[in-house]
């Protein structure tokens, strides 16, 4: 065995066979196949979760065009198919980051402390629907929704409570927030300042991926054009003031949860990513100034190899486009770092304990696919927000994979598998075909406005449901291996209805104690910036946050200036 | 000839998770019903108004945000106030068992959880509408 340095100089190829032997292999395969076709096979459809026919067997024939250096390379090197870091999990394990938030900031603060104590290594904030949609907790439209599916954050005071006793220079925080991401980032920066942590030391992520909201999750507020402008303002602000912050977490997770196939998740997510890159360049930014701070967020669904191939293909596609199409020069701009969350939509309300096992398989695929951070779902999430016990098992699942299974010892251990490599190739090709289609429709925003992705996803979701109903697809405990007379005996996390009153009181207190004139003026400055693209919104929002203008007040001004997006109801 | 069953599928509140609503709408359409889908972010008033205008037999609401204890009773009240107490109001989403029981006591129809088949839902709607139409004819 030569040293690593020797191997790089050689032309390494996975398919070592000469053309002639490949030909004879094809002949041998045909002969083998004839024999196999005479044998009985089970009367089921051999399809992936995405509905794709699976090959019977893969051989070197399936990877004959694979060029090791061109298509795989070494971990930490272009095109990053094998991973974004040279030392991957030998250097550092993935960040174990459980998405969490409910009730008041105080309730969630306690859950965060619980998770950190149990060995979690990063925080991930789930906000409630009013926060996500830019309404204060005491707004009429918030009625019944405050603190229900996430934590209620309406003002800086709430944010301070959320991170009370958690030093922001010691944790990284991911915030699942999109349309009002600018405001929540401003709150976070202001909390950092109040703790004595300067903004350039803060690490974390705002999701800030508005395109997938129009496509899948539907938590949009403003129309696409002003939304894209807010995002470029954030990119510009962040590079100078929060340089270690991930400014957009380009998300396939929700696209998949809405019912897409794996290829659609891959293609639409990367198409969104390229749209942000183009918007940044169009706004006059140098691609290498902001691209290194873009990160990704994928789903880990049940089809084990399809998922692994998806992550590998994603890295390669991103690297190739960033380098070749967008001319990025910094290697940091080429590498696709990603967070993974196991598929909530794959969990079943029936026999909920089975979800522990589903989640474990999904988490394993994310790790074998080289994820940078991971959320594992809890078994009770189809019923309500997870209890502490359920969350602990989910976190332990990650720790088991990391410390007991040995899979983190070797980087990209499935590389060279005939099946995984051919699947990786196929997914890249099919994603490229989608990019072309989207391009022909006039780009991502135009395609959204035409409902293209929404319809593709809706059709895939309906097909998936029909496959379950026709039992072409088996869901254990749902359409096979059903427990008759099953009673679900599982603890449910109940949200205390006092949340709404508590929030109303806090907001009342804040509005009374603040300098009303300063808050009003700050809001008017936001309005002026909305009207003038030459003024960056971010510093105005940060200032308004500090003088205790609320989330709802800021977003209201922006609603008045930018208008609201309405989507045509299609099914 | 009997009138086709008219169904309003509604997404109340702020939640945008519309996979369930859209799949159900398509399934009911394919089962021969006339389906109207409200689209997202509807207030109870908007839903009751549409139900009235479209003269529906059934309102199905999809809620994943945990706001079901507020939104179902609010829509029920408005339907009753507008002379639509015979309209079947039911729904689905992530709704805990205890809450389902409480809502059923308030006169809300069945609430279907994850894993429900279209067939089960279609049969339920047909039977309920049949029953309600039957009792209306007797009056």
Could you characterize what this model shows?
The complex is a heterodimer of chains A (571) and B (139). By secondary structure, chain A is mainly α. Helices cover 50% and strands 6% of the residues of chain A. Chain A has one domain: TIM Barrel (Alpha-Beta Barrel). Chain A contains 24 helices and ten strands. Chain A has a five-stranded parallel sheet with strand order 1-10-9-8-7. Chain A has a five-stranded parallel sheet with strand order 2-3-4-5-6, with helices on one face. In chain A, helix 16 (354-368) links the parallel strand 9 (338-342) and strand 10. The longest helix of chain A has 23 residues, at 418-440. Chain A is globular. Chain B has a single domain (6-138), classed as Cobalamin-binding domain (Rossmann fold), CATH 3.40.50. Chain B contains five helices and five strands. Chain B has helices at 19-30, 44-54, 68-81, 97-105, 118-138; strands spanning 6-10, 34-37, 58-63, 88-93, 111-112. In chain B, helix 1 (19-30) links the parallel strand 1 (6-10) and strand 2. In chain B, helix 2 packs across helix 3. Chain B is globular and about 40 Å long. The mean pLDDT of chain B is 93. The A-B interface holds A 129-130, 132-133, 135, 141-145, 148-149, 213, 217-220, 257-259, 345, 347-350, 382-385, 458, 461-462, 465, 468-469, 475, 478-479, 488, 492, 495, 566-571 and B 9, 13-19, 21-23, 25-27, 29, 35, 37-41, 43, 64-67, 69-71, 74, 94, 96-98, 113-115, 117-119.
Secondary-structure topology with pairs:
The complex is a heterodimer of chains A (571) and B (139).
Chain A: H1 4-9, H2 19-37, H3 68-72, H4 88-91, E1 95-96, E2 99-100, H5 105-117, E3 123-125, H6 129-132, H7 156-162, E4 173-175, H8 181-194, E5 204-206, H9 210-217, H10 224-241, E6 245-246, E7 248-251, H11 253-257, H12 262-282, H13 287-290, E8 294-300, H14 304-325, H15 331-334, E9 338-342, H16 354-368, E10 373-375, H17 388-403, H18 418-440, H19 444-449, H20 452-469, H21 498-513, H22 516-531, H23 537-546, H24 551-562
Parallel strand pairs in A: 1-10, 2-3, 3-4, 4-5, 5-6, 7-8, 8-9, 9-10
Chain B: E1 6-10, H1 19-30, E2 34-37, H2 44-54, E3 58-63, H3 68-81, E4 88-93, H4 97-105, E5 111-112, H5 118-138
Parallel strand pairs in B: 1-2, 1-3, 3-4, 4-5
Helix pairs in contact in B: 2-3
């Amino acid at each position: 065995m030569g040293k690593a340095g020797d191997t790089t100089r050689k032309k390494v190829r996975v398919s070592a066979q000469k053309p002639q032997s490949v030909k004879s292999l094809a002949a041998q395969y045909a002969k083998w196949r004839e024999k196999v076709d005479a044998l009985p096979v089970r009367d089921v459809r051999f399809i992936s979760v995405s509905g794709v026919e699976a090959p019977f067997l893969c051989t070197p024939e399936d990877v004959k065009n694979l060029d090791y250096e061109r298509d795989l390379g070494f971990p930490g090197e272009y095109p990053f198919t094998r991973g974004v870091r040279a030392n991957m999990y030998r250097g550092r394990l993935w960040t174990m980051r459980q998405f969490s938030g409910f009730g008041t900031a105080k309730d969630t603060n306690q859950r965060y402390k619980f998770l950190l104590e149990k060995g979690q290594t990063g925080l991930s904030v789930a906000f409630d629907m009013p926060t996500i949609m830019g309404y204060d907790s005491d707004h009429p439209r918030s009625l019944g929704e405050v603190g229900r599916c996430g934590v209620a954050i309406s003002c800086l005071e709430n944010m301070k409570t959320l991170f009370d006793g958690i030093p922001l220079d010691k944790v990284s925080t991911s915030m699942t927030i999109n349309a009002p991401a600018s405001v929540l980032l401003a709150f976070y920066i202001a909390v950092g300042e109040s703790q004595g942590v300067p903004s350039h030391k803060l690490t974390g992520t705002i999701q800030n991926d508005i395109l997938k909201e129009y496509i899948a999750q539907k938590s949009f507020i403003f129309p696409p054009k002003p939304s894209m402008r807010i995002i470029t303002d954030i990119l510009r602000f962040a590079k100078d003031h929060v340089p270690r912050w991930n400014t957009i977490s380009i998300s396939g997770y929700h696209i998949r949860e809405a019912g897409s196939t794996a290829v659609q998740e891959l293609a639409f997510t990367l198409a969104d990513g390229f749209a942000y890159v183009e918007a940044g360049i169009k706004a006059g930014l140098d691609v290498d100034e902001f691209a290194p701070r873009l990160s990704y967020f994928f789903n880990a669904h049940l089809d084990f190899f399809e998922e692994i191939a998806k992550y590998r293909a994603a890295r390669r596609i991103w690297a190739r486009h960033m380098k070749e199409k967008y001319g990025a020069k910094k290697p940091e701009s080429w590498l696709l770092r990603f967070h993974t969350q196991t598929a909530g939509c794959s969990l079943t309300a029936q026999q909920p304990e089975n979800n522990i096992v589903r989640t474990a398989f999904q988490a394993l695929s994310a790790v074998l696919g080289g994820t940078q951070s991971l959320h594992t779902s809890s078994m009770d999430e189809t019923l309500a927000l997870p209890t502490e016990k359920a969350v602990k098992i989910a976190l332990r699942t990650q720790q088991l994979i990391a410390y007991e299974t040995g899979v983190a010892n070797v980087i990209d251990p499935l590389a060279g598998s005939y099946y995984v490599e051919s699947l990786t190739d196929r997914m890249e090709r099919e994603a490229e075909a989608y990019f072309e289609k989207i391009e022909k429709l006039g780009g991502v925003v135009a395609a959204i406005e035409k409902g293209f992705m929404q319809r593709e996803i809706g059709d895939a979701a309906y097909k998936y449901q029909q496959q379950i109903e026709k039992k072409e697809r088996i869901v254990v405990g749902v359409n096979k291996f059903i427990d008759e007379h099953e009673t679900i005996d599982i603890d449910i996390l109940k949200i205390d209805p006092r949340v709404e009153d508590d929030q109303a009181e806090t907001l009342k207190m804040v509005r009374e104690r603040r300098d009303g004139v300063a808050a009003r003026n700050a809001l008017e400055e936001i309005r002026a910036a909305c009207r003038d693209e030459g003024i960056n919104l971010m510093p105005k929002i940060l200032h308004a946050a500090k003088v205790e203008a609320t989330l709802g007040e800021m977003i209201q001004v922006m609603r008045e200036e930018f208008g609201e997006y309405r989507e045509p109801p299609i099914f | 000839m009997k009138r086709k069953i008219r169904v309003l599928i509604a997404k109340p509140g702020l939640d945008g998770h519309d996979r369930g609503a859209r799949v159900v709408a398509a399934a009911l359409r394919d089962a021969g019903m006339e389906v109207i889908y409200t689209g997202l972010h509807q207030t109870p008033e908007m839903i009751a108004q549409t139900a009235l205008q479209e003269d529906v037999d059934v309102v199905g609401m999809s809620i994943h945000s945990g706001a079901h204890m507020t939104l179902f009773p609010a829509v029920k009240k408005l339907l009753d106030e507008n002379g639509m107490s015979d309209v079947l109001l039911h729904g689905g989403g992530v709704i805990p068992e205890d809450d389902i029981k409480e809502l059923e006591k308030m006169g809300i129809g069945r609430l279907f959880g994850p894993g429900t088949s279209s067939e089960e839902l279609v049969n339920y709607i047909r039977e309920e509408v049949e029953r309600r139409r039957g009792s209306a004819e007797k009056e």
